[in-house]
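Can't attach files on this board, so I'm pasting raw text. These are the components:
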Amino acid sequence: MDFKYIEQLLDRYFAAETSVQEERLLRDFFAQDEVPEHLRKWQPLFAGEKLMAESRLDDCFDQRILQLTGEEQVKARRITFSLRMRPLFKAAAFVAFAIVLGTAVEQASVVHEADGEELRASFEGEDELDATETTVIDIRSANAEPTDTTYTN
Amino acid sequence: MDFRTDILPHRDRLYRLALGITLHTAEAEDIVQDTMLRAWERRAEWPEIQNISAWLTQICRNLALDRKKHSQYEANLSQSTSSSERLGPATSHSALSTPHLSETLEARESLNILAQLMAQLTPPQDDIIRLRDIEGLSYREIATELGLTEDQVRVYLHRARQKLREQYTQMQNYGLQ
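---
Top answer:
Structure tokens for the assembled complex are below.
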């Protein structure tokens, strides 16, 4: 790496003329093991900045703080209106479905009864027809006997 | 405003602020936890707060400074007790006792140097150095955070870094204070 560039960056850093990227480059440069002797005196300063910048809380912190604040429970209570009404909507939908189903069954049974009556009526009509036909046949046969008798006689 | 989305995301930044003051990881974590709980207790005030980040920073800084003062007091008390009553070595856990941020001596020294340099800066120079060199914020973001103009941030940063170089050079020449 060009150390002249690093020296210039250092001067510009202390004059507050460097960008965020250039300042990061300086911290990365001084985090290396191999830093030239004349620049080594700046190493602790930039190493301290880098160490501090990379410090984070562990992942358990969020969970612990949410338990302590009870925010998880509060979250559960903060449900939207539609979510709150969902059981009611489900019940209403079930009732509506039951009504539709009941109506459909009722209509189907009415239609079935009507069909049955029509069918029955048609059957009864056929019986009457048969009876008429039988009567006609009976009359014919009654009329035929004397003829036969006539022939016999 | 919501705790999870507006308050909790500040935790790491507050942790670094507390760590810069106490130089003690467990204490810094406790301070952030106390900050979060205090913010939660004062949730009725959230809608009126213009700058939530600055508000949290103020709570955290006050707690960290109180904790540091208390630790120093305990350390001094322990030292004086042990020297006057000769009860053996001091056993208190001061802000600079273990566990430290890093296991290595070099890293510990680096952090001590940085903390000492930061402690010698006056407000808002210390905040500006922290937000720029630790948090990596732009001039605009720093200006928003601190309620300054970008030009003011540039001027303060320039002065802060000049002072940083001067103090640091003195430390290098005469050793740590």
